[in-house]
Amino acid sequence: MTQVVPKAVVLLSGGLDSAVTAAVAQGDGFGIHCLTIAYGQRHAVEVERAQAVARALGAVAHVVVEVNLRAFGGSALTADMEVPKDHAFDERCRQIPVTYVPARNTIFLSLALAYAETLQAQTIYFGANVLDYSGYPDCRPAFIQAFETVALLGTKMGAEGRRIEVRAPLLMLSKAEIVRRGQELRVPFELTHSCYDPGDSGMACGHCDSCRIRREGFRLAGFVDPVPYATVVQAADKASANAGD
Q1: 7-244 has which fold?
Q2: What's the pTM value of the predicted model, to 2 decimals?
């Protein structure tokens, strides 16, 4: 008798966290159907990396959807605004940064929900994390719980009594813990992209908050980040890492 593999939709950005999340979903026994959103982000190279990660992990399917959030702007990732560079650890924790994209995760989860309904999948995996990022409001546990209620009340599946669960397995992990988990799951980190402000070649800048958080995570986890960086400021790295220890 052929065993039916349950389906899960995985929001796959092409970054480190989403790649680990996809591998976790596979480890949980799901056939992963990856969804990537090309939303007009300045680091559009991550869409290409998401395609490479999906192939490497052996995803059942990978869908790329275009949603032009650049039409609204309001973020350093979708408008002509400067991406913050070389922030110390304590500076990153003071306020919601300009790299926050208004309602991005609400939009992404809504699209994942639509995809899940077409697949009759009752699980969505989402690489949100609250510990290492700068207070993005749409990464909080309360937001995820509220979205599950939206999914229950606003879908045919929910009306029929089939709840759609949103799993965020990395939510309360540090970046170092995420790196270690990825190593255990053999995640192809060399294919991932985390930089908010890459150069024309797509190489990571090494100075934005996302680059700094990623590299701190690899350092604290005791592994070498396989992704190359355009430039590195060792003194700034050391100061930031010491503040975060």
Answers
A1: Rossmann fold (3.40.50)
A2: 0.90
